[in-house]
Amino acid sequence: MHLSIRIFIKVTLIAMNDASQSLGKSAAWIGGSQLAMRLARILSTIVVARLIAPELLGVAAIALAVNEISHVFSRNATNSKIIRAEECELISLSDTAYYVNWLVGAAVFLIQCLVGFGLSWVYDDVTIFYLVSVLGFTYLLLPVAQVHSALNLRQEKIALIATTEIQQTVVDAALTIAMVLLGFGVWSLVLPKILVVPIWIRAHRRANTYIAPKRFTLSRLSDHLSFNSRVVGVEVLGVIRHNIDYVLIGFFLGMEALGIYYFAYNAGLGLSRGFILSLNNAFYPYLCAAKHQSEELQKRFRQGLSYMLLLMIPLLSLQAFMADIYVPILFGQQWVERDAAVLVSLLCMAGIPLLVTEAGSQYLRAQDRPLADLQWHLSYSAIFIIAIFIGVQWGLIGVVVAVLLSQYLAAPLHYVFIVNKQQSKNQQTVFAKSRGLIG
Hints:
- This protein is mainly alpha-helical.
- It has helices at residues 2-15, 21-51, 54-76, 79-84, 90-122, 126-136, 146-154, 158-181, 191-195, 197-206, 221-253, 255-267, 269-288, 294-321, 323-331, 333-337, 340-348, 351-366, 370-391, 395-434.
- The chain has a domain at 268-433.
- It is built from 20 helices and no strands.
């Protein structure tokens, strides 16, 4: 796997033109790691698709959707501020972040258990409560290394992050396959998510010398709240959009339909979404490295986005085109009979607007303007949920069409009216300063 990653890096760097070597190398590491991770996940998906019934996949989809929403609060409670911080305030922000992460982790665990109880009542299935509650234990483990992780990302240790993700994914996939074969059923999709957390903790703590303060402190709490609360708001809305379809499909169409959709999503957009999100995670520290220089930041954004689009559009298009071929071969003819191949093909193309919107969000955060992004995402999320409500009336294909239409309409609007508008405003400010019109 490491050999394939290094080959990917060399090919990517040779193919680059204007994109910086820093972002290119990060993208190459991410690309190589995601390639290895996708192979592992494809193997586990093949086993799961052939041995676990669609209705059980639907139950797992609900539990994992709740967990993904919860993970946003834990992941973004302090990270963005640490990555963007000035060197002189880094230690104090990190010390406060350490204790904030523990408080957030405990709160998320309790809230997730309550949500699991409510969902088990709504869907009349107590298994959902058990799955969601067990997944919640993750948030009592993550604070051990969250500050270390943020500092490693700030220092652009992308090779470390990519290698750690590979290890987690491969172990997760191996455990999933083993548990499915041993008859653990739906628990095969949940328990590995907890068992791989120590791999992440060990890797990030070994790579960073940060030592947590022995004395409890929240001295920089207001700084974290003012910045990260808006980032969390945007991320929560994004994750809700990526998971609300699960909840509505399960409620209106039943668990079997949800199982089919969950499979189609993971065999389609799920194979590329991790790559897209990882690219944008590397994009944020790359933008922050502009050190608040407006013109340099804009240049990095335009070049970086162009590079990522040139990388992803051919891959997503090829994946969509090949869906009719690889779905029956890898996952079985039964999924073709349920029209899953068509859903897979359509969902692949949702990755392009996702990439544009995520990149725009990273740009606004690097400018210290997460509020503008949050305001946009509030409006867009409302439109997206309404579209899903309408689309579900025509079954799964209606949901997928609603997802695609709303995303392809929203991504260019987000870029033109939020991101590009801010670029124009910055350019006007620079012009005014050069003319001595403002101080």
